[in-house]
Amino acid sequence: MSTSAVFSRIVGSGSCLPSRAVSNDQLAAEMRSRGIETSDDWIVERTGIRQRYLAERGTTTSSLAIEASRKALADAGVDASEIDLIILATSTPDFVFPSTACLVQASLGNKGAAAFDVQAVCSGFVYALTTADSFIRAGRARCALVIGAEVFSSILDWNDRGTCVLFGDGAGAVVLRAASEPGIEAAELRADGSQMHILSAAGNVAYGQVTGDPFLRMDGQAVFKQAVTVLDRSARSVLAQAGLSLSDVDWFIPHQANLRILTFLARKLDIPLEKVVVTVDRHANTSAASVPLALDVARRDGRIQPGNRVLLQGVGGGFTWGSVLVRM
Ligand code: UT7
Question: Which of 9, 49, 137, 298 is most buried, by CB atoms within 10 Å?
Fold first, then answer.
């Protein structure tokens, strides 16, 4: 390996959504038929979500991840055989094992890359990207595929209106390559396990049975407060690490959980709303997929240009959070 290649750079991106878009009105009508009251007005006012994409039974996290990965490889002009590291962030893996990263590897026809999953819920992509960057900077990989993919609809309690209207399914991927200049300029990952109870899916498969509660449960208000506090601190911390200020950020891509969180955070950080990439209105909260999906949308529609500085942020169950500052 060249001694000058000590940084990593995003050289391609791709994404994939299931084909079925479900509007708030469609979801509300379906829920009402089961005696659960919700409305487009409530969902839009509290979250900014207007629709979500939901996987049909049989559409797996790996199938969405594979499609997103193929697009990212094509965008980067990289052959699957060049990949020597695959990190996939998910909380809804196809199986207990093998990892979903290994399923993606097999489908792409890659042989020999290290492949593993990262479990940091909605912070998963930021965790995976930082891990891949560290591998490349340490000389342990040269070309990584980093994926966030979820079929979150599979762990929702469709009788809990406080959570089931908030989430959607999808996948996003990037190709990260060794480079002589950054690339990833700064990163910070954090967790506070003592806050595990505010967002969890505390079930398990053991002794041939599902034990515990296999559905996602959330204290929405506690998550909201925690998210804006930690993301504000984390954004300032990575900018300081890079010796830059918030005004140097061209595009801000926080985890797409709720439009109110995004706007509140942008205001706290004094980042103009025009610089915030928003996909939560169309995708809802896709957990580990939300940040790479939004990144891919904004690259493909021409907003994010080479040379732009992009601040990516994840936050979610664990409790986990993190930020990555990227020069495109
Ligand atoms: O990726 C993980 C990150 N997750 C998040 O970032 C979520 C953060 N939290 C939130 O986004 C918000 O807290 C929610 C959107 C989850 C909830 O908004 P809220 O303004 O905190 O509402 P609330 O939980 O205080 O509920 C207000 C009312 C309640 O009724 P009462 O008790 O006031 O009569 C709820 O029962 O809204 C009711 N409600 C609903 N009504 C219609 C809860 N869900 C619904 C619903 N439709 N779907």
Answer: 49
